[in-house]
Design brief:
Structural class: alpha/beta
Number of helices: 4
Protein name: Hypoxanthine phosphoribosyltransferase
Organism: Winogradskya consettensis
Strand content: 25-35%
Number of strands: 9
Pfam families: Pribosyltran
Distance between the termini: 23 Å
Cofactor: Mg(2+)
Pathway: Purine metabolism; GMP biosynthesis via salvage pathway; GMP from guanine: step 1/1; Purine metabolism; IMP biosynthesis via salvage pathway; IMP from hypoxanthine: step 1/1
Helix content: 10-25%
Length: 186
């Protein structure tokens, strides 16, 4: 879906599809160089990072295995609850393997920190994070990561990110208009 289809719902377009895909390619080259010849596993964080995870895997020039995890770290009001609840655990054995956690957005860093702690006990050879978007203003945890773009605070939708189940299929990344959130509640 193009931004024009939901223009009234968007405050601004942050990143075009072309800009995102170009940066995904750059991240893939960087990761490919750092992990050349190694047994790499990407762990995508559902649902927001699904699009990014698949595009990143397709841009890598080495075979990778993809696993998925899902968790909830926000209450219904979209304010951080301070805790993480696991909704879907990883189905892969990662012991002795190089693992990259793929996140759509690192906001406070709570989910990424929780994942690092959770996966470390599974004894991977190495563990890193790759985030398409990072909101430096909201950081409460220091999460070193391969980072696509630093973005401002605001409710970001598109390229896999949603608001109340909508906008995941938007090809760009955009800030949702305040009136949409106000009219539909958080």
């Amino acid at each position: 879906m193009d931004a024009g289809h939901v223009a009234d719902d968007l405050a601004s377009v942050l990143l075009s599809e072309e800009t995102i895909l170009a940066r995904v390619g750059e991240l893939a080259r960087e990761i490919g160089k750092d992990y050349a010849g190694r047994d790499l596993v990407l762990i995508g964080v559902l649902g927001g990072a699904a699009t990014f995870t698949v595009d990143l895997a397709r841009a890598l020039e080495t075979p990778v295995e993809i696993g998925w995890m899902a968790m909830r770290s926000y209450t219904t009001s979209k304010r951080s609850s301070g805790s993480v609840r696991l909704l879907k655990d990883l189905d892969l054995d990662i012991e002795g393997r190089d693992v990259i956690i793929v996140e759509a957005v690192v906001d406070t860093g709570l989910t990424a920190s929780w994942l690092i702690n959770n996966l470390t006990i599974r004894r991977p050879a190495s563990l890193a994070v790759c985030a398409l978007l990072r909101k430096p203003e909201g950081a409460a945890f220091d999460v070193p990561a391969y980072t696509g773009f630093d973005v401002p605070t605001g409710l970001i939708v598109g390229y896999g990110l949603d608001y109340r189940g909508r906008y995941r299929n938007l090809r760009c990344a955009a800030i949702l208009a305040d009136n949409v959130v106000r009219d539909h509640g958080r």
